[in-house]
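Hey, can you fold this one?
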Amino acid sequence: MRTRDAIINKLREAFFPESLDVVDESHLHEGHAGHREGGETHFRVYIVSPAFEGKSRIERHRMINATLAGELASTVHALAIHAHAPGEKRG
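Sure. Predicted structure:
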């Protein structure tokens, strides 16, 4: 299974998001630390889930990082997170 697909599956199972977009930005990091041929090393996650209601930005990031601990310990070098609760202003 591709890394992007694994990330999507794990986030869906853990957070039941209203919306989820996982973008592979590896091509933007060619020549930088952690980049590998074939990509799938640098990702940006946009997620909206009721699971984040009442949680701080740091708590949300920790929740996502814990869910993706296996990927972060192996194939994923960098993960940018945009996590919101439903109805929150995104900015």
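Residues 21 and 46 are 5 Å apart (CA to CA). Let me know if you want another pass with a different chain boundary.
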